Amino acid sequence: MQKADDFFAKEQQKRRNWVKPVSKHVLDNNEKDSKKKILAVVDAVGAVLASYLDKPRVYIGCMKSGEVFSQPQLGFWYTFTGKLGKSVDFQLPKVIADQVFVADRDSYKAVELAKDKHGVGQVLLRNLCGASVRISLHGGQVLSWKTDHGEELLFISSKATFKPPTAVRGGIPICFPQFGNRGNLEQHGYARNRMWIVDDNPPPLHPNDFNGKIYIDLLLKSTDDDLKIWPHGFEFRLRVALAFDGSLTLISRIRNINCKPFSFSIAYHTYFSVSDISEVRVEGLETLDYLDNLCNRERFTEQGDALTFESEVDRVYLSSSDVAAIFDHEKKRTFLIKKEGLPDVVVWNPWEKKSKAIADFGDEEYKHMLCVDGAAIEKPITLKPGEEWTGRLELSVTPTS
Questions:
Q1: Distances (CA, A) of 397 to 87, 329, 338, 401
Q2: Per-residue pLDDT tens for 152-193?
Q3: How confident is the model at residue 206 (pLDDT cuts 50, 70, 90)?
Q4: Is 221 exposed, middle or buried (0-12, 13-18, 19+ CB in 10 A)?
């Protein structure tokens, strides 16, 4: 397997060229024929094969010749050819191959750039299974996250405004450098109301942050106008990545390019789509202290084993673990929230009365959304000149019985 690993590693091209052309041979009675070009995700091959390690009567390996699986009539042969002409053959059953290959190399686009009706740039990420993520350059905001079946996982209000400079109500707006009204800036800071650009040459990240993933890098820099209201120079780099399994990752890197220290707060203000807020519970926050924004930020301790909802909730849970979960009983699915560098968790639902007072929010829409944010709020992050902070949020969804 080491030779195969070495070969595939050498075949990795530049970061966006993660889709590989390979030769496909339909295998019939150990004879190769019907050769044609298709697309393959090299990292996806390894990920899917790994899930078969404990299956009976399956040999997983990489061979230049010879039978690999015990039922060759059910499989395909694949040939990866390197730049110097070196090739490696291996065989996969069709059930596996369908998960890591796409037949038409001309119609598939992993990353697409477009504009909405207001002329705002958007980026669409799509994996081979059909899961997708849509990001607006206005605010660097994720507006959509869909499963491979096309089911939307994020909430967007039917009354949301998509025309700048108004922030979109829903998705994942980024609150920076201030959360809420905890400072002198506009509500939730100004990053969500600025135009970001695609970063074509970002500083490198660890390979685990992009191997097997489709991603886009965005960049926000402080402008002269920004410095008038918040006198601190910064570079905010954001990577939005969609994995083969449909999970969504956001990685923020904020660098102080000023000559003096500054402090900031940040939150990924994630609007999850839920079936019915009364049928939802959140776990992973038990026994934690929290600041209740409905009681002038008075400090309390969570007493329940799980958080359920019967009225308005607006809390900041402090010093939380790096994992929380949202259980949606009616839709029989669970959102798993993993985070790094984000010690706090915000939980918000406006309920009926406040919903009617929010102009870009439907009166009854509180029933179908819940905000659970990875955040750093209670203790702002301080950066010295030249220092960089990194925060990471990973969202995934799994079916539950």
A1: 37, 13, 11, 13
A2: 999 999 999 998 988 899 999 999 999 998 988 998 999 999
A3: confident
A4: middle
Quote the pLDDT of residue 70: 37
Higher pLDDT: 98 or 144? It is: 144
20-24's contacts with Cβ under 8 Å and 24+ in sequence apart are 20/80, 21/105, 22/78, 22/79, 22/80, 22/81, 22/101, 23/78, 23/79, 23/81, 24/76, 24/77, 24/78, 24/101
Query: Of the candidates 318, 330, 319, which has an alpha carbon nearest to the alpha carbon of residue 370?
Result: 330
Cβ atoms within 10 Å of 215's Cβ, excluding its own: 22
Q: Would the pLDDT of 114 be above 80?
A: yes
Cα gap 327→371, rounded to integer Å: 13
pLDDT for residue 55: 58
CB 176 within 8 A of CB 376: no
| Rg for the chain, CA atoms, rounded | 24
Long-range contacts made by residues 289-295, C-beta under 8 angstroms, separation at least 24?
A: 289/317, 289/318, 289/319, 290/315, 290/316, 290/317, 290/318, 291/315, 291/316, 291/318, 291/378, 293/180
Average confidence score pLDDT of the chain: 81
Tokens representing 364 are 């009854």
Please compute the mean of the pLDDT values over residues 56-68 and round it to a whole number: 45
pLDDT computed for residue 19 by the predictor: 41
Specify the length of the chain in residues: 401
CA–CA gap between residue 85 and residue 153 (Å, rounded) = 44
Is-contact 120 131, C-beta < 8 A? Answer: no
pLDDT over 70, % of the chain: 72
DSSP H stretches of helix in 232-361: 351-357
Question: Residue 137: how many CB atoms within 10 A of its CB?
Answer: 22
Residues 6+ apart with CB under 8 A from 193: 138, 139, 164, 165, 166, 167, 186
Short-list 340, 359, 187, 369, CA closest to 249: 340
CB 27 within 8 A of CB 73: yes
Element holding 383 (H helix, E strand): strand 369-383
Q: Answer yes or no: is pLDDT of 293 > 90.
A: yes
- Phi first, then psi: give them for residue 362, nearest 5 degrees: -70, 150
Q: What distance, in Å, lies between the first and last C-alpha atoms of the chain?
A: 37
Q: Which amino acid is at 28?
A: D
